[in-house]
Write a structure and sequence with these properties.
Elements: H1 16-30, H2 46-56, E1 68-73, H3 76-97, H4 100-106, H5 117-120, E2 123-130, E3 132-135, E4 138-141, H6 145-162, E5 166-167, H7 176-181, E6 188-197, H8 213-216
């Protein structure tokens, strides 16, 4: 396709044997990724966060609208305010909002409404989705917003793991307090809260297995 709106594609390709090995190596590396709830307060540089978020921002998006904002928080006062508000919502969820079935599903993970990691982790990355852009008071619609933001978060989690760090996908509900605490504009809604840092020494994770290939992959 020849057009002034297009440029030559300059991707990297490999011989099939190299592609096979790289795909296997990457799978085995990503299979070691785990969600962690016990964080160290060991610092993580702002430059690392820059690269992680900009990796996430390379994700594809509907009509290339890139309908996301990543707010990286290290300020202790703000983290404490987020923890206080999140724990209030979590307490209400664990004590009335969640069904018994949901609570039973969470029991193997040992979770409750206490969220100390929101203050301990050196960084909190709060991902906001934008259903529309707002510039000089003029709205312009974004497309496939949830799908686009979800893909970007997948890129972010892979980048965090690749940097030798750990993360947690945290979804206190409702999350309106994040928009207020961070003073985000009206077109942004909190989508996910991700603590990022190093694991605490002797951190343990639940003994769980991922589904086998036959359960997740079907060829036609």
């Amino acid at each position: 396709m020849q057009s002034s709106n297009f440029i030559p594609y300059k991707g990297i390709t490999y011989p099939e044997d190299v592609s096979l090995q790289r795909s296997k190596d990457f799978y085995e590396y990503m299979d070691r990724r785990r969600t962690v709830r016990e964080f160290s307060d060991r610092p993580v540089s702002k430059e690392i966060i820059d690269h992680l978020v900009m990796t996430a921002s390379t994700a594809p998006s509907g009509a290339h609208k890139q309908p996301w904002t990543f707010c990286a928080v290290s300020n202790m006062e703000i983290k404490s305010a987020i923890r206080k508000a999140a724990e209030k919502e979590e307490y209400d969820s664990y004590n009335g909002r969640m069904s018994e079935e949901w609570l039973d599903a969470l029991k193997p993970f040992g979770t409750d409404w206490n969220k100390p990691f929101l203050e301990i982790a050196p960084w909190l990355i709060i991902v906001f989705k934008k259903s529309y852009d707002l510039e000089d008071g003029v709205k312009s619609k974004n497309y496939y917003v949830n799908e686009s933001v979800g893909i970007a978060i997948g890129f972010l989690l892979a980048a965090i793991h690749n940097a030798g760090l750990v993360s947690l996908t945290h979804t206190p509900s409702p999350m309106n307090f994040l928009q207020k605490i961070l003073n985000r504009p009206e077109n942004e809604r909190a989508y996910l809260l991700i603590p990022v840092g190093y694991p605490e020494v002797d951190t343990q994770v639940p003994a769980i297995d991922r589904k086998e290939k036959e359960a997740v992959l079907k060829y036609y």
